[in-house]
Amino acid sequence: MPLGTLDRTPPPFFRQGPSALTKLAFFSALALFLMVADTRFGFIEPLRAAVATALLPVQRVLAVPVQMWEGGGDYLRGLQAAQAGEREAHAALARQAAQAARVDELAAENQRLRALLDLRPSLTVRTVSAEVMYEASDPYSRKVFIDRGQAQGVVRGAPVINESGVLGQVTRVYPLSAEVTLLTDRDAAIPVLNTRTQQRSAAYGGAGGGANPVLELRFMAGNADVQPGDLLTTSGIDGVYPPGLPVAKVVSVDRRADSGFARILLAPTASPDGVRHVLVLEPL
Asked: Which of 1, 2, 147, 263 supports an S-S bond with 254, CB 3.0-4.6 Å?
């Protein structure tokens, strides 16, 4: 077949329309026209509103996972913040409780110290203030150790008192400390005077036994004029304790028919439990 007779036109499948440049110019002009027309006349606004209305449910459905994720994160952060705030609040309450307890303790201690200072002018002997360090480990005795000794002028036999009355007597002295035997010890004894009847006697410790020993008036006649509530003070006849210091109060009187003596139990006016600050007196 001669070459001049061949059909050189492309088949319909490969035939092309307008060129790419022509399409670009056309659609650019169309887009510009639509933008200007929409700006001037707004005829696309109803179409935009309809499309937005139709797509709103889809947008809300698609936004649910995002909202759940963000809400879960906010919940966890809020829970952590609440737990941290609760821990801080508990810690603050604990600090405030400790401070309140410390304030109450300091107030009570201040009151005791003021009472000791008010007691000093009424004493005619030299006094040394001391602080109780610890109690003796012997379970069968009632003794404490104070932080004053020979270096501060403490001598053996010196009376020891607090704002409530007589506590005991120094029985051992060391260079910087001293041992005090309390009135409730089973080996302690002190001359006393009944302020109501002016009757003299002697009080002995360790009468009650157990964890709360008390004092006892011994060798008192069964018909002796002693009543519960009587206040007993130091008589001063022993040459150790100044007269007039509170010692104990009568709590019970048992007048036994089978004995010539009455069993009289006393409660010390100065409780040895929990005492911290004391005064050591110079023996008369």
From this structure: 263
